[in-house]
Amino acid sequence: MVTDRAVEARGPRASRTRAVLAPLAVALAAGAATAFVGLVDPNEPGHYPTCPFLALTGLYCPGCGGLRAVHALVHGDPVTALGLNPFVVVLIPVAVLLWGRWALRSWQGRRFAGKGMHPAYVWTFLGLMIVFWIVRNVPFGEFLAP
């Protein structure tokens, strides 16, 4: 097992390479998942499991339509993606920006363990998600349903 001191003794390049392994692994996993959703159409029945919340309650969760939205984005159709799940479509660039910040901080040797996000942003996100969840399930918010 290689310790942090052993890696640092090899030089800053080895330490930097090790530091960016986690962000790179997340990028590879997200890229593979996106490619899979792009190749395997979620509009075809039987390819993906049904949303458990939708199956139990008959109501849409904040993620319902998200796979189909990602599929539409992969195929260059942002209008359809916005119609399926605007919350997911808006969150994708936010997730990319947060990932970029994490990767940059890792490359610079700075930690990004939970302290990089102000709690107000987290609470705002949760509040918006709950409002979206509720509004898409009431009659006047029907346009937000997938």
UniProtKB/TrEMBL annotation:
Keywords: Membrane, Transmembrane, Transmembrane helix. The chain crosses the membrane at residues 20-40, 84-104, 116-135. It comes from the Bacteria. Pfam families: DUF2752 (PF10825). This is Membrane protein. It comes from Streptosporangium carneum.
